[in-house]
Amino acid sequence: MLFIRSVILVIISFWGSAPGQWTDAAGPDIKTIAVTVDHPALEDGPEEMSLRQVFEGGASSYFFLEVESVLCADHICKVVPVRLFWDNYGRYKRYELEPGVELEKGEGLPFEKEDYEQLDRILANEESALRELSYADITQTKVHGEVDAMSGATALILSDQESIEGATWTCFTLWHWVHGEMKNKIREAYALTLEQRQLREMLDSKEEEMKLFAYESLAYREDLEEDTEWALLAQAPRLTLEEARIICTAQAKWPLDFRVQLSQSLLTNPAEAVRLISLETIDKNEQEEEFKPLLFDHLETISSLPEADKVLNILGRYGPLMSTEVDAMQEILKEKDLLITRRLFYFLQNQKLSASQQSVMDDFYRQNSHYL
Amino acid sequence: MKRRKFFKQTAGAGLLSGLLPLSIRVNDDPVNLGKRSNDHWEQMGKGKIGIPKRQKTVQYDVAVIGAGMAGISAAVASARNGAKTVLINDRPVLGGNASSEIRVTVNGVQSLQNKHRVERETGIIEEMLIDNWYFNPQESYPVWDHVVYDYVSQQSNLDIMLNTQAIDAVMHDSGTIKSAICWQLTTETAFTINAKYFIDCSGDGLLAATAGAEYRTGREARSEFDESFAPEVADGWQMGATLMMITKDMEKPMPYYPPSFMIPYQAEKAHDRKINQFKEGYWWVELGSDDDIIADQETNRHKLMGYMHGVWNYIKNSGEFPEADNLVLDWVGSLPGRRESRRFMGDYILTQKDMETYKHFEDAIGYGGWSLDEHNPGGIENLSEPPSYFHDRFNKPYEVPFRSLYSKNIKNLMFAGRNVSVTHIALSSTRIQGTCALMGQAVGTAAALCLSHQLSPRMLAQNNIDLLQEQLLRDDVYIPNRPSRDPKDLARQCQVIFGDSTATGDAKLLLDGISRDEIDQIHHWSSSSKPAQLQLEWLEAQPISEVLIKADTNLQRKIMMHKNPDKNEEQILAVPPELVRELVLEARVAGAWKEIAQLSDNRRRMIKLSFAPVQTSALRIKFKDTWGADQVKIYEVRCYS
Ligand SMILES: Cc1cc2nc3c(=O)[nH]c(=O)nc-3n(C[C@H](O)[C@H](O)[C@H](O)COP(=O)(O)OP(=O)(O)OC[C@H]3O[C@@H](n4cnc5c(N)ncnc54)[C@H](O)[C@@H]3O)c2cc1C
């Protein structure tokens, strides 16, 4: 999922002598959520952790998690607690240290002011090369095949902007907490606190990330409120491919009559890819004839072979056409471009045809024999 | 980096041969090699006295000398593209440094500083590596030899000659090579191999050298090509040769008694030589030369055997490594693997600068991207310096030009692998076997094209480079910044291409001439489930007899075999699960779909379906299964008449 990166510049005031603000870990407005999450540096697999959701004015405002600065098997490095903060959508906001506590680089050197700022920038970068590094890359410098005894090999994989010299483990550990499985856990937790009404409002948001979140959250719900159904029907003609994908995957859990209406609405979307996904979804339903009328309607407006092919494949499964349906299709035979009409012609060839219908076919054949 | 002095003392043997003139030498009496008169051979079976007359003359279009990854790729490409080819190797097995005799990991472009850390080589090298997981998931090196032998010996148009060394060249008056004189040691036979084109992939390049092809050894001065990692003044440095080993765990303490030729390892003096694993030996058990590495080879081999046992003795008997108590040597190398000797000069010399600036070559035929990893020739005798000057890493692949792969002065001679026209600093990256194999496929393909179009390699480079590039792209080689635009590809003329579902990418991208995803640029179509189907539709019927598909093998994941199973961590030890395993091809004839080809247990990224010509306005490919993945991902579809 696309992440709209909003690098939040934090004024970090918790190092040196300045007294820091260490967010309360408990309180009336703080909910503790037990989550089981994995991290590439956890040797024994996923661990249970306490994610905190902070409410402000009754609404979920942000999340935080307390982790250790380094997950380090041999415990040669100093470990301090670090709090990581995300917004409701699982986007990184900032980190915090307990007042008076410092992060360390190699050989016991404390972080400098620039290092703290650098760490914040690294954590804000979802695309960091840290994603591709494995724990082994960092701990055993065997990143380089033949030259596996070279010291400092990781520094050569990560550019200066992507690591802090002597603190690659810290960067790696924290980055993978920030951008790992926790993001989805947060989104799920946030979604649970929202009413369908609130999700519907988000559908009109200007922020794509928020819209996607709303679609994702609705996709989990089986019982859609009537207003939600209306909202989805209204959105369908302008959904992006990514949004349409979320909705189409969810469709199976929704009632048939709503699915039919939704498909109809999706088929008016100007993007061919969206219409195709909608047709794929109908295709998966196999036997449900309720879609037949809308497929016939759609055939009339079709302008591309992939869609025509898909529609005819589905229609073919409903059994032989009625004579009126053949007539309707033969109308189209006269109008569309040859790639589509040829497909239609081959489709009709296998239907039971009246004499007049057959003569339409013969005419078509005569006119286009070169292409058939 | 200082020029080392100590070789001066041991270079006596090398000096003499260094004084020999390098002028063109034509073999005076080539047949002399197998001439016999003094045998007293009583052939009991025949009841006669005989003289063994073991001299043979054979005729090929293309002769490839040396069967490392470069030579194998060259020979297979040449034969596949229609030239009658022979592959000559002086060892009993194929594979060169990658064979069970030496056991160097077949690495390729990796550790790039980019979203694609790995940019795997496709084409012939990939086919062998995938075959290896199919036949040899147990990662046995001797079995790998047979996997390679199986792959090469299946190729029609191609003969293999093992235990056969090319030792001299016979020249035409025109200055081209007429024959390679070879000695096959197992049959005591002297072979005269006549060929129209010769490709020297032997690493050391004895044939090319005796033909008088210009070559260099040592390091270029920094000023010559403006290479920042080159020395101020040119010198003789040649990266060394290494003996590897493999250990096994006996699950109880085991003693180690070193052999008499062991040379103690002076760990306290060693710089940057880490012993952080005990499985696969140490690449820094290495010795080079700063004069004549070929002359030094046997002296170095003896010493390397001693040094290798010295390191193991240190591990087992110094008391520093209790982790190694239960370990024993299971395999030890006796034939040092070589990194550098002769570099033959082409019309172009690839340099550090070209690589670091990612220079675009109109005649690019492949790419590299291993770091600039220049080993110190003093190796284990020069412990105060690091074993490799590990200069720099690349962000993306650099291009390799065809003009670096043929001789500037011998018209019918090409080369590929570690002996090509690159500077010493450039070789510190291009020597990696994945890169060598791409060069091999390029020269093999070039030889076949030169033959069919009656061209010299230089003419091909200067006037017909599109021919070569298009054939390579068709045969699943990737050339950065050179998409295919093959006018013969009928798929490009289709009106519509579409899949029955699309999870990512777009079926139209299968015709864009780039058959892999590039950084931030997608070139694939992926279905959302399997089975899946792709359809191509033309307005008018096309005559089609071949369909080529480039499927997914995940080029960002490594697939080589390792001596050390720890290095398998992020690999899949099987045929890539993404790869299409089973498919059916159908053509629409008179409105009805008809099966025209099918394939099961496919192991190739490049799927080639050949069939009796059909006249059709639509094709559909039904992908029935993969080797595990739930979706079908494809990078290219081509159709030919
Ligand atoms: C210990 C070591 C570690 C290395 N590490 C890596 C690594 O991790 N990954 C990597 O990819 N590369 C590595 N390299 C480099 C790589 O192995 C070589 O650069 C590469 O093998 C060169 O390939 P080639 O095909 O040109 O030659 P080779 O692999 O050397 O093959 C040449 C073949 O030609 C034969 N031959 C030679 N002369 C004649 C003749 N006159 N007639 C007939 N046959 C002849 C040889 O016996 C051999 O079989 C390493 C090298 C060494 C030695």
Automatic annotation (TrEMBL), chain A:
Name assigned to this protein: Uncharacterized protein
Highest taxon listed in the record's lineage: Bacteria
TrEMBL record, chain B:
Gene3D superfamilies: FAD/NAD(P)-binding domain (3.50.50.60), Galactose-binding domain-like (2.60.120.260)
One family name in Pfam for this protein: FAD_oxidored
UniProt name for this protein: FAD dependent oxidoreductase
Keyword match 4Fe-4S: yes
Keywords: 4Fe-4S, Iron, Iron-sulfur, Metal-binding, Oxidoreductase
One GO MF term: oxidoreductase activity
Keyword Oxidoreductase belongs to the record: yes
Organism: Echinicola pacifica
